[in-house]
């Protein structure tokens, strides 16, 4: 997740869903024309496919242009440089995750019980971020800024809402921070890459934590 201005900290009431919150800075240019927005999505989809295949280190402006079938200059005009492309790609992928847990199919999205949605959330985030650890870690120039990112606030508020609905005991906001801390990108990278733990082991730990919190409804 990238740096941005923090939204109000008020938690949603039970049953209230929050809108998608962006990763981009508040001074981002006005909304793109429909054709420009389509081109941007085309480039980001191409970059996302490449990232899954080759990793962040080998993701270049030239490779994205080739994968999208456009000239290299088009990519530079849209994103400025490689850093701008990587930030936009993180934002693009985060919005896809947000759409999944806010309005996608159950058990991650609405339609399942709060406890079922909590159990589904951790594995969804783990797998969402698995292929972009390098991207996310590279964006964390200041560890404190991570807590001011609107996308993190949305995740915290969403989990806190589900904890209340699931009748979990304790402070919902602090418990939400605890749950998210267990799947923090840096920790997951250390455990899976440095320690060699399978992702499934971390998923099981998430389920254990949710169950121990008494989420039943």
Low-confidence stretches: 2-30
State the secondary-structure class: mainly alpha
The ordered string of helix (H) and strand (E) elements is HHHHHHHHHH
Calculate the terminal CA-CA distance, rounded to whole Å. Answer: 31 Å
Oligomer: single chain
* Main beta sheet: none
Mean pLDDT: 82
Helices, by number, come to: 10
Helicity range of the residues? 55-70%
**How many whole angstroms does the radius of gyration measure?**
18 Å
User: Which word captures the global form?
Assistant: elongated
Describe the protein in words.
With about 220 residues, the protein is mainly alpha-helical. It contains 10 helices and no strands. It has helices at about 35-55, 60-70, 70-80, 80-105, 115-130, 135-140, 150-165, 170-180, 185-195, 200-210. The longest helix is centred in the middle third of the chain and has 22 residues, at about 80-105. The protein is elongated and about 55 Å long.
């Amino acid at each position: 997740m990238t740096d941005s201005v923090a939204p109000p900290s008020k938690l949603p009431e039970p049953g209230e869903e929050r809108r998608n919150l962006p990763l981009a800075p508040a001074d981002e240019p006005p909304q793109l024309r429909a054709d420009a927005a389509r081109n941007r999505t085309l480039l980001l989809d191409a970059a996302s496919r490449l990232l899954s295949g080759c990793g962040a280190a080998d993701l270049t402006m030239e490779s994205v242009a080739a994968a999208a079938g456009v000239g290299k200059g088009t990519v530079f005009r849209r994103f400025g440089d490689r850093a701008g492309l990587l930030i936009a790609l993180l934002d693009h992928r985060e919005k896809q995750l947000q759409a999944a847990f806010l309005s996608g199919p159950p058990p991650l999205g609405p339609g399942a019980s709060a406890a079922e949605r909590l159990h589904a959330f951790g594995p969804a985030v783990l797998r969402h971020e698995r292929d972009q650890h390098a991207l996310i870690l590279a964006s964390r120039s200041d560890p404190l800024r991570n807590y001011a990112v609107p996308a993190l606030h949305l995740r915290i508020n969403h989990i806190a809402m589900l904890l209340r609905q699931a009748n979990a005991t304790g402070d919902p906001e602090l418990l939400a921070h605890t749950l998210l801390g267990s799947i923090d990108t840096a920790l997951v990278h250390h455990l899976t890459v440095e320690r060699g733990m399978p992702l499934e082991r971390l998923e099981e730990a998430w389920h254990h934590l949710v169950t121990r919190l008494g989420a039943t409804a």
